Amino acid sequence: MSSNALYTDLSGYYDLMCSDINYQQQSASIHRLHQFLGNNGKQHLDLACGTGPHVRHFIDLGYQCRGLDINQPMLDMAMRRCPEAQFNLQDMTAFYLEQSVDLITCFLYSIHYSAGIERLKSCIASVHRALNDGGIFCFNSVDKHRIDNRLSIKHFAEFEGHHFAFESGWHYSGQGENQSLNLSIAKSHQPFTQQADVDADADTSAHQTELWQDQHTMVATSFAELQALLAPYFEVHIFEHDYEKIVPWDLSSGNALFVCVKI
Q: H or E element: which one contains 27?
């Protein structure tokens, strides 16, 4: 499949693929950080907003929200979910807002969709221009040097009488500015077991399994490199990737939450 095939051709499965994510908890956590570190304004933009689940929760928290994505089918679903919000079809690496905002979020490691350092720099500059004074930019990131290529995350779901297995994992070759996010969706008429591997070698005739696989090329940075890119524009705070509590990054974990205050 092409680099965006899972998100375009199978956009109807996107929410199911992310059904294990606690969007409300993530949104509430960033709201608290904005109260502590930001200007506490209520104008919000969600980059790579997808079908709008985070936007929905920020609206419920009292924000005036906008969403931005490069995928029109996703935005169509977001508009149905959040009719109060404004949505725009734009590339987050070079976007423009007519009215600045107080809080910009980019969840689910989507900051890495800036596929290359120069495009990441452009994204950061676009964010800085779009923020009001004292506004904050919040996103999560993975450090390329701490990626374990052997690891992946899998979860299972049921929808319209079918059983689904979703799997994702990072891969970094050890050099260069690109890493990949490897994704797969398996759809079957029979339940998948937690123990069974779902791969291209599965007995698809016996289980009537359809399999989609995709590899997304994404920008690879270390946290130190990312801090250096952000420093000209922001006061940077790094926290543990924990939406239940606010804890400074322990300097060793490979996932972190960046909170960047406009300077």
A: helix 23-37
